[in-house]
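agent> Task received from the user: take the single chain below, predict its 3D structure, and emit structure tokens. No templates, no multimer pairing.
agent> Plan: (1) validate residues, (2) run structure prediction, (3) serialize to tokens, (4) report one or two observations.
agent> Step 1 OK, no nonstandard residues flagged.
tool_call: predict_structure(input=
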Amino acid sequence: MTQMTSVHIKPCNIGQSEAHNQRTKAYLDHIDAEKLYIRKDLIPDNQSWTSEQQGDMTLQQYYDAIGRMVKEKTGRAMQTKERERVNKKTGKVTKIAGCTPLREGVVVCKADTTMEQLKHFADLCRQSFGITAIQIHLHRDEGHYLDPNDTSTWKPNYHAHIIWDWINHETGKSYKLDNEDISLIQDMAAEALEMERGVSKLETGKQHLERNDYIVAKQKRELDESKKQAEKLAKENEQKVLACDKLDKEIHDKQVKTNRENGSAILSGLAHIAGKGRYAQLETENEIMKKQIAAIPQVVAQQVETLTITYKEEITKEQKRADFWLTECNKQERIYKGLITELKNREENLKQKLQLRDKIIATMKAGLTEFLRGFTIICQNAINAVIDFAHGYCPIKVCKPLFSYLCI
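)
tool_result: status=success, residues=408
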């Protein structure tokens, strides 16, 4: 059976994320085992990866670096707190969420999920939406026991934490993803991890539970399922007992009827010379009838199995055909959505380039105007100098002004 995956994304809690993901000693000493159980013997099976973009910085240092970059790019400090906007005409108050430059996604995995698959998923997200993974942590040590006193009832909770940088470092603005984009991320996770996509909450109406609440709810659900399964088995066993009692009664009734007929035949045979031969024949027929009765369940089961196999094969073929076309449809839909998102990003980048070019042209125009003004002043000064020279006198004061000769 194919396992299902899902991705839940929320703002990164910088104060707790690194301690939880790196399994620090202080964190392990203070966790509540009733809400979150971590097997220390399985901690070595965990895997972690940090991008070169983060380097040796802590999450807090990286967060502060993003704040400085946003201030440099936009000229405004990064707005991290929720604020309200009031419409002056209607008086309607709209809440605007604060900027969340770092976001953490919890990805449901399976036992053989690899770090390479998670990196591939992160690359798909970066190519489609621009968001960049700076940390990936694959956890194989979390889970719970169905029965705390029985270690064989361990149920692992395989998952991974991905820390995303949600800021466009060229513009200083955060990426905007809508519900369709988040849905596409779920599709890409299922494809990259080779798992089945979970059913969208838009269809189920269910709300996401945080990790501790989810574990408690899952334990309760498994306990309820175990009780229902036990009740179902008890009812099936009761039905089987009733069926066996009914079959035993039918066999008993047939045996009594057979014995009665055999007894009559014996009494009748004693009155005839050939009675012993007839009794032996009835005994043989009785044995044959018993064998036939005993074989009835097996014959019926074989016939049912034959018909079931035929129908199962047809159903399997149709299911494979339906899965194939569904996969193709989902693939084409993902490609289409990816192209739409890429087009949006290209339009945004083109718009920014055009704005930058307009600024450059305006600057060049202003420079050219200034140059022409200065050039005009220089030319005017040169003309005035020539005129002044033409009206001047000869240095030896015996010549007329140069302008006089020019006039002649």
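agent> Step 4: summary for the user.
The first strand starts at residue 4 and ends at 5.
agent> Done.
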